[in-house]
């Protein structure tokens, strides 16, 4: 059960990564600019002075929105499963099952992220943008430090085995 749960969460992460990569495809970027119901990407392109290269900017903004939805999804389940000691716990059951509902929830979050007005995502609001920037910076630094520690530990363990 634990292995299948890890595989399913990995599949969710892989699907989100694939969708993010697809958002950077030329045809998808052009389609995003052409079918922009809220005018989010067009206004950002005008403010940035992107001109003819607007679809390149729109693709990257779409990736941010998909990744925002994935981060919210995984953060929610992190909060739900804090201090779960057994898979027999009610919250453990939520963690290990309900894959169809979780998939629909992730898709709903990703689609919903495209309907968040641009001002609410930090563009045009300097304070919110600065907060997101610092949160991202601190998170990135912590992530890199943890990865370096794990890499050094792996190299040390591997060296002891050989």
UniProtKB/TrEMBL annotation:
It is a multi-pass membrane protein. It is found in: Membrane. Keywords: Membrane, Transmembrane, Transmembrane helix. InterPro entries: TDE1/TMS. The chain crosses the membrane at residues 7-25, 62-85, 97-117, 129-152. GO terms for cellular component: membrane. Coiled coil: none annotated. Belongs to the TDE1 family. This is Serine incorporator. It comes from Nematostella vectensis.
